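Worked example

This section walks through a single chain of length 410. The input is the sequence exactly as stored; nothing has been trimmed or padded.
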Amino acid sequence: MLRNLTRIVCLLALATLIQAAQPVRILFIGNSFTFVNNLPEIFTKLAAAGGVEVQTQLVGVGGSTLNGHIGRGDAQKAIHSGHWDYVILQDESSMGSILIVNGVRHPADPSDMWHGARELNKEIKSVGAKTAFFHTWAWRAAPEAQAMLDYAYMTIAKELGAIDIPVGPAWQDAMRGAPSLGVNLYVADGAHPSPAGSYLAACEFYATLFGKSPLGLPGKLVGLPYVAGRAAGAPGPVTLVDLTPEKAAGLQRAAWHTHETVLSGAYMNLKRPDPPELPALPAGQKMGDAEVAGDYSGTLTLFDAPARMDLHLARNAQGGWDGKLKLTFTGNQRDMEATLTKVEVGEGGIQFEDPKESVPRLYDGQVMLPATLTFRGVPAGRGLRGVAEIHVNGGKQLYAAGSWTETRKQ
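Given that input, the structure is written out below as tokens.
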């Protein structure tokens, strides 16, 4: 009831603006999910085709969280610089808290996102504007992560009395019909939107903010490309998106269906989803020297890209164990070599660590966090198999967990 009442008030205010022939002024605060394909411009042109004049401004930083925007201060300056009707907030795709499971990224905890949203909402309310959230989609490799994004965005929107623009749910709705439409919403990285993906987002913005169906609006839109800072000499108009009427209609239907589903209350009072299931180590067994010592080669599925894992284990003069590890990646991740520490062989199998490793967190730039890689394994046929984990923040936080399998070299 409260959500519907809030929406009615917003729509009445919007109707007053439109009747007075005043443009709807919108400030976007986000990252590449917003500025790739210039979503604000696509939305502006789509709204114009529907008879609504929209003026936008964007504060966009690649990979930024809402807290990152707060730290830089440009978002607050922009909020206070114009007479905005809406300020739309978009957080990093994993909300600044990530858990990688067998190479797939999952948003782990919305607490940081909620903090940034609350702080920016205070600024937005102080200038008389309305807060709205660009509720994003899960990466292509982890559709199950959408549940956490839905929970995070809709929960904070309800708390703040803000508008949730459910692009992520619309994305899932559209994906069910995407193959038959011949539409790919993602670009090659499986995260960022294609022009069709940005068009779907614009349709959901149109449906949610204006309460109007986007059905029948054009699928080809021409406007300015995104140029950081809009420097002098910026390129002129280009084709932002070019969809056939059939493809455009399919995305429009998905956006409107999602809008109606949300209004029906289907997403009210979402429960926090369970975390992703972590890989488990089989029961340990006693291992003898002959089963452990030697050279191995196999596969590690832990990081964003799979790695070849070469392992050397040998007894040392003190009666303990020494080891060397080499990881060779197929993607852009740098290769790694390490002398292992804490190599232990016992009743439960084998365990060893690389304590000097660091891992990148691609939020607000490349920040390297000290990390510890721990490997646990048990005998498996002619080799070993096990579980690897990366812990950060002094071992307090699990960053990644994955499986590894090694075969003894001849």
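What to look for: Confidence is low (pLDDT under 50) at residues 360-367.
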